[in-house]
Amino acid sequence: MEILTPRLKLRTARAEDVDAMHAVLSAPRATRW
User: Which residues of the chain have a pLDDT value below 70?
Assistant: First the structure.
């Protein structure tokens, strides 16, 4: 699975990683890059 955003490119096959990404994308201010 590949997730593309303007600031981030992640490739993962683990469901927990996908869930974590959804959480970050849902609340971008909670994470600082």
Answer: 1-15, 28-33
What lies within 8 Å, CB to CB, of 2 at 6+ separation is 9, 10, 11
Mean per-residue pLDDT of the chain: 66
What are 8's strand-pairing partners?
A: 5
Residues 27, 13: Cα–Cα separation, whole Å? 22
The DSSP bridge partners found for residue 5 are: 8
Supply φ then ψ for residue 5, to 5 degrees. -135, 165
The closest alpha carbon to 5, from 15, 28, 32, 29, belongs to 28
**Predicted model pTM:** 0.34
